[in-house]
Amino acid sequence: MLALAAVPSLPADAQTVAGFSATDPRHAHLRALDQKATTLFENDDFALSMSQKTRDAWAALRDAGMKVRVAGHPHPMAGVGLIKLGSMDQIEGKNPSALANVDKGLALIAPFRDAYPIPWLEGMSVKGYVQSMIGDVAAGAETLAQASAYADGYFARVGPKALSEADYMLKSNIAFSHAQALSRLGRNGEAVDAQRASLEARTTSLGPNHPDTVASTYTYAQMLYRAARLVEAEKYARLAVNTATDHVDRKHPSYHRSLEMLGLLLARTGRRVESIDYMERAIAIKRETMGTKSLFYHFGLYNMAGVLLPMERYSDAEPLFLEAERGFRAVEGENSPQSARALAFAALASAASGRPDEAIERARTAMARVRTPTASDRDMGQRVYPLLVPALIATGQGDAARVAAADYLRETRQIDNAPAFALANAAMLAAWAQGGDAVAAARQMAGLLRESQSLDDDGDLNEDQRAALDTILKIAVQAHDPALALDAMAILAGSRIAQANRLVAERLVADPALAARVRTLQDKLKALASADSVLLKALATDKDVEAARVARATVESVAEAERAAIARDYPRWVEARGGVRPDLATLRAGLAQNEALLAVMPAFDGVYLLAVNADGATVERTGLARAAMVALVDRLRGAMTPNGFDRTAAHDLYTQIFTPTILARLGKAKALRIVPTGAFASLPFAMLPQRPVVAVGRDTPWLIRRFAIEVQPGFATSTAAPQRIAMRNQSFLGVGAPDAFAAATRPAAPVLLAANHYFRGGTADATALSQLPSLPGSLAELRAVADRFGTDRATLLVGAQASEAALRGQDLAPYSVILFATHGLVSGQMEGVTEPALVLSPPAPGTGDDGLLTASEVAAMRIGADWVILSACNTAAGDSAQAPAYSGLAQAFRYAGAGSLLVSHWPVRDDASAFVTLETVKAANAGTPRAVALQKAMLKLMRSDRPDAAQPYIWAPFILVGR
């Protein structure tokens, strides 16, 4: 540790030795030396400004000042020379020398501080920055706080006319460094205030449109994000982009950096699809202005790939990581740490894509590049070992897996304040590889992940967490432990639900009472996470284990009591956050007679199956890896036409999911609840053939012949029927066939895009909405259903009346059946405000509406319908087959009070939709279980004489959505 020279304690009032004058003519030779050194230091030639000649000039000032005595002190100009030498040291990365010089310089200036305020501030700025860089962040933050406070007082005292642009820039830089130090300490609220001060000073110095002000603006946005002030963060990030677009040269780094920062912010707040547009623009500008050999360009590729990873777009992310890896290596050398990081992420993509041998080779190469006894080596181990150990086990390299797991555990235990996740993950992988109690370690890991999910506002899982869940599921399969598998699957399903319903949950938590309760719970969960770390560290070192265990149990009991109280008082919020925590006994008790449950969950590199019936449960992994299974779903969805489908893909999916072991557990069940996530939420299970199909006919052995199917997004087990507000006599509300959004031009062959395409900056994009394909059969469908109810019991809102305003004007409680026949937009990742929505008619000017009925708006409605039907909707219009076809909209209607949801995977022919809707509702009203009612309607449609009725494209898109 460096021995730091003591800086005198400084009074708040003016501090200068009595009678001293900075312009004393006796000291003119010192001012001349200062001017000579300053001219050299501020030269535009950087080499000259940092040359030995400049150092010698500052040293001459230091030496001359030390020879002059003022009231018993060396002349403060000696301190100025030392501070400038320290500044040069800091620029050259010589931090110990820099700190020593500025400490001595500050000590010399201290008695004369108010006569040399700017050099004093420069010295404090260098000192605080260097303290932070060498690891003493708290001391650095305190030094910079003193500097900022002094700058505020000095600037206020002398007034703006006496201050130069350089003075304001110094103040801005001090505040910037202070904000960075505070952020590193986790004091994010204070960091926001400091960066705000930096932005204001920089704006005063340079104006609002200067590239450096743009940089300060997007840095402010970053600080706001870290302080969880997300709305303000996005506002300033967009301001930086708009200012850069209008006023900054495309070649300036602030231009592309502002785009990239907004993209990263959107990605970190769950809007990855929208973020990609900004990231791509930033990369294109870097390519154009800097070339493909620039480090900035390769960092752009690296950041873009990092956005794609959590979207499970591994095939897109992998080549970007590899190109960035080659670029980093070309610039920084063969052992470039950044190239190693990029290669490690490429290894992760290999593992997730089912190529373990390639993942092993890349992981080992990445590790070798930084295999030195440094902190960076441990950081790389934290990245590489969690994917290396499972890959070694998967390829039968048990001995190598045990060595790698032991290394991972040892290195993790050596990290000061290692996070609980890393400690638990290392312990789990070591127990699994070495034949220890892997189940107990996996349960502990699942508990930590559940707590982490409760803390995360959007419920998102990162790659490390998803890989850990995959390991838990592997252990559950090997141990035949369905309860452990259910723990992991509930976290996976809960994550998807929370992402789909983020804005619904935000609307619910707008209640101040609930918001206060949620903050209290999060505080208690943070305390529990800290207690977990302490316990895991104690277990690792075999010290104070019992005390740590007792302390954790105490904290856990408090947190669990708060969680249970919120679940009791605010069950809708818990459900919207995906917080339902099932157990097998409750799950089995919630099954009806002759009913079973099947969960189909992709995790990281595998797909896992959990079958549950009244007698027990079975867990299994599909024979094909996740990537191959998702490819089958893509093939099936991509080849669906009114005249045919990929019969091989359909049967392969059936054999992978409905294995002999799973079928044995399902037994004689006649009804099946399916809980699918990821790509499998878009899979029409009803059309999977139980035997290979040569030609489609009325007797093709579809899965729907074997089971009445209900799909649910999670493991909620409520068996009680929701209270119905609607009266017993059936009444119908049909909403749809809305007017089109106007546009100057219209493409000849419109296509339906991901929901994000229809939003820009958080509001509906009328131009994009105008390009939606028409639904010519929707009006006929609505009228056909209305006719069956009778004109006295049917209401239609069509054309211009199919609007948000008209819906708000309706009392929806009395209707027993509500049918929406319009486009449904569901993004592949349910991005931010680009939430699932139903497209209605364009709004009247000045209403504040946008023509989209979003999930969060639906959740605020009061609906009493037994049935809500989303028909003629492309509710799986996401950007890949991973798009959940229902969860956001269906959950929202559930929260609003609806009973059953009948939705479609793709646009449905109007006659088929009307047929299935009417037959299902009619049978259900007669007492038939709703899943069975839909099953019978589908089978009846297949047997009918309607054109192509036997083709699954006609009858298979319908799904019944439960809780």
Q: How much helicity do the residues have?
A: 55-70%
Structural class: alpha/beta
Beta-strand proportion: 5-15%
Measured distance between first and last alpha carbons: 59 Å
By DSSP, the count of extended strands is 18
Main beta sheet strand tally, sense and closure: 6 strands, mixed
Poorly predicted ranges = 1-14, 719-728, 744-764, 828-833, 874-885
- On the 0-100 scale, what is the average pLDDT? 84
Give the overall silhouette: elongated
Please work out how many helical segments DSSP would assign: 40
Give the strand order of the largest sheet, numbering strands 1, 2, ... along the chain: 11-8-12-16-17-18
Radius of gyration (Å):
32 Å
Describe the structure.
The chain is α/β, with parallel strands linked by helices and 963 residues long. Helix content is 58%, strand content 8%. It has 40 helices and 18 strands. Strands 11-8-12-16-17-18 form a six-stranded mixed sheet, with helices on both faces. Strands 5-4-3-6-7 form a five-stranded mixed sheet, with helices on both faces. A three-stranded antiparallel sheet has the order 13-14-15. Helix 5 packs antiparallel against helix 6, helix 16 runs parallel beside helix 18 and helix 34 runs parallel beside helix 38. It is elongated, with a radius of gyration of 32 Å. The N terminus is likely disordered.
Précis, in short:
The protein is 58% helix and 8% strand.
